[in-house]
Amino acid sequence: MFRAVNHRAADAPDAPRSTDRRWSAQQGAEFFGVPAWGDGYLGVDEAGRLTVMPERDPSRAIVLADAVAELRERGLSTPMLVRFPQLLEHRATVIRGAFDDAITRHGYRGSYTCVYPIKVNQHRSVVERMRSLAPRLGLGLEAGSKPELVAVLAWTSDTPGTPIVCNGFKDSEYLETVLLAAGMGRPITPIVERREELDEILRLSERLGVTPNLGLRVKLASPGAGRWQASGGLGSKFGLFVAEALDAAKQLIDAGLGERLTILHCHIGSQIADLRTVRRATRELARIAVELRRLGAAITTLDLGGGLGVDYDGARTAGHSSIDYTVASYADALVAEVAAVFDAAGLPHPDLMTESGRALVAYESVLVFDVIGVSGHAPEPTDAERAAAGASDLEPLRELSALADSSDPAPQRLQAAAVARDALAELFTSGGASLAERALGDRLFHLVGHAALEEMARAGQSPPEPDRLADILFDLYFCNFSIFQSLPDLWALGQRFPTCPLTRLDERPTRRAVLCDVTCDSDGEMRSFPSRAGAGGGLTLHTPRPGEPYDLGVFLVGAYQEILGDMHNLFGDPDAALVALDDAGRLVIEEAAPGDRVADALRYVGHDPASLRERVVAETKRALRDGAVSQQLADAYRRRLEDAIDGSTYLRSDD
Ligand code: PLP
To answer: Which residues pair with 82 in a beta bridge?
Structure first.
């Protein structure tokens, strides 16, 4: 439940700024950008509630707030990760369909396989679902390490026809596992990342009597683009330089193994923002493939790696959190470029493969957390207070009062208000103004500032000093989650994630907020958001109502966030659930699992919860023996710590 941290917020839930209800659910959806970044999977119903449509079918929608309420009934609490497994199937179908269409359109004579790299989300439910979709949608799986390989091999034991691609740096144990799986008849291909791996494969192959198909990863000259460009290009730590690849291919051909060199692979980075970059890299890879084929290598498959992006902003631009293309145009570009190069060379078309992870799983999960308090919201000064300020002998206070009625351009008003506010603070410090006068000045500053920011956002202008203004003007919404655990790419890379309340989208939101997580770290905050709700910095939200949860969702968090997250402050994995729709369109909770307990988090950093318990018990016994505390207090203290060890790492929000 929402608890007011700042008494002023609790006193003023119905302040004028938050009572304008002439606002429709449609306006709310547009304001938060739901149709743009939701991509048909997210919507808003007439009652202003966020909905999830796992199959992009508006007649089969899940009201997210209802699902969260049901999960709370079952004992889960926020923060929670809500997964929609049906959405994975839809994404896989969309990608498959886009390539099938492009293949037909271009008369392409090769096939397409999407190989899911499990590093993007290794959660059991995701891998299990992908594996079960594999036979029908022609999906494969990719492993990038020994643990991932074990998971992939074991999960595909009953779908042994699933293609498996092995990337990452490999030692002889990794390679031996791959070769033995190939010996078992599995369609598994190790991709050579380093020259030494090829020598080791050949050595093992002789020893085990198994010759696998293999692939080469090449570093392209075509630069990647965006935040993840370091994983592609000539400076990348991955793959072989073209000269090394040529040498490796010749070695295989000379050894009579040219037919075994089946895959040529590149990965120019994740979340490629623009289609031009994709086209250039595809053409370069295809050209290398043509040359290697002419030398005698089979190269039956071109594997273009990951990179198919997700429009987190909904802006459809080549910005950092957006993409300027669709799944369909991506597929079209790949097919067209490869066809053109192979047609020009007079060679048969190769099969195509992509290792699309993000585009498959990003939409699948939503992080939901509750706002536990708000700080910094000053109630607007009353008419009497404004009149008193206007008649004050303090010049900055008079100035602030006048600015509240001024029709000067918004940026000027904002600047002038900031100057007056600073002057008033200095007067206070030197003893020339009272605390009450300074507080009134602050409230007038908020009034002027918020009005100016709103006006500027409507006109598409940015505040002149966004960071400084954010510090002093935006409300702080304290939210029960850890950015380091649940949104690591926001912290590490400045990635923006779409964020939106689960309810009240039919009410005009009026407060500009910075979202602060519960870690003791100043980096643990969200300040930058897509859509009009985030224009000018911060996120425009509603005033939470005392006694009623105000839950926010951060969307499109299914790719990379879970596994890259860390335990800063020992905030662990949040509770998690699998939510689906049955054939009749009813909500089904397929799984509901508590997240890490305090004991799990402590164990993770080497503490033994049992011995911590013993230490607490020993302390209470000593204190009782010394007569320092009552039995009642000692028992209460011991019980509290024992409960804490078994409890959630997050704040309890239900009391
Ligand atoms: N393949 C390789 C070799 C990668 O390194 C990655 C991720 O960085 C991927 C595939 C998945 O990329 P994406 O999530 O952009 O599809």
So the answer is: 366, 577
* Packing angle, helices 435-458 and 410-429, rounded to 10: 160
- What's the 349 CA to ligand 1 centre distance in angstroms? 24
Residue 452 C-alpha to ligand 1 middle, in angstroms? 43
Ligand 1 binding pocket includes 121 (Cβ within 6 Å): no
Mean pLDDT computed over 546-556: 95
Q: Point out the ligand 1 atom lying closest to the alpha carbon of residue 560.
A: 14
In whole angstroms, what is the distance from residue 606 CA to residue 615 CA? 16
pLDDT at 470: 59
Atom of ligand 1 nearest to the CA of 167: 3
Average pLDDT over residues 408-430: 93
* Residue 512 scores a pLDDT above 90: no
* 525 DSSP β-pair partners: 516
Gap from CA of 236 to ligand 1 centroid (Å): 13
**Residue 205 CB contacts under 8 Å (≥ 6 apart), including other chains:** 179, 211, 212
- C-alpha to C-alpha distances, 553 to 32, 120, 268, nearest whole angstrom: 12, 21, 31
SS3 480: coil
- Residue 271 CA: which ligand 1 atom is closest? 15
Roughly how many angstroms between the first and final C-alpha of the chain, as a whole number? 7
Note the pTM of the prediction, 2 decimals.
0.91
